[in-house]
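Worked Example 4.2. Consider the chain below.
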Amino acid sequence: QVQLVESGGGRVQAGGSLRLSCAASGGTISPYHMAWFRQAPGKEREFVASISYLGDSEYYADSVKGRFTISRDNTKMVYLQMNGLKPEDTAVYYCNRAGPEGSQFSWGQGTQVTVSS
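Applying the procedure from the previous section yields the following structure tokens:
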């Protein structure tokens, strides 16, 4: 069973940048489209960005389009480069398999991103 560990979060001021990493172990993520999700306090987990299994197609939520970039090395790592961060980007960020609810791997612990104004 694939296990996912997210890292790279932190506290930054508005306008700053962070690069999140997601490391997979216990199996390969090569055959899967992968995605980043986030959950802010008191809110449902929401989709942020996804990347195809070949890494040649990306999709972004409107709220992050033009500011965030998803990438992968197609072995075990998925990344999220976040630029122009806003206070509303504050959340715990998770990576997982892209797809309908129920198709995901077990969720990792996530990585906290806090953006101050």
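The chain is about 0% helix and 50% strand. Strands lie at 3-7, 10-13, 18-25, 34-39, 46-51, 58-60, 68-72, 77-82, 91-97, 111-116. Compare this with Example 4.1 before moving on.
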